[in-house]
What does this fold into?
Amino acid sequence: MDTERTLVILKPDAVKRDKTEPGLLGKIIVYFLEERLRLVAYKYVKRATKKQLDNHFPNGEQWVRDMGVRALGRVKNPAKVFVTNDPQKIGATIIKGCREYYLSGPLIAFVLTGENAIQKARRVLGSALPSKAAKGTIRGDLGEHEKHGSIAATRNLVH
It folds into this structure.
């Protein structure tokens, strides 16, 4: 078993919801602690910068296209929703929305460490779409189901 480190980001919706649902951030962190992961560093980020997002998110053509292809698979009428069927253009639209979302409010970034930390963290996060995330995962238990056909960034609490 390998000791690994992984980065987790509590997105603006998690930070905002904690104000109306006190303790939400603590509940999220407990999911990781129950997997025997240790929180070794954290940082409150009042507003992410464009440069931070450029460094964090991939931006290659294939990654953008893959985002568009996945959207085509889950949206019933993509031409109506995205005004195109081109996966590259759809991916670019989604990524633009995600970046705007990350810039919309505070974030909390933290580093976890432990045996197989990456695999454990991914498992505990659950599917990126809360409506498809399993019970017992952060997104399945705490995430807000996305609106069908919406092109807004998914409010799934964690990255």
Notes: The first strand starts at residue 3 and ends at 10. The CA atoms of residues 18 and 24 lie 5 Å apart.
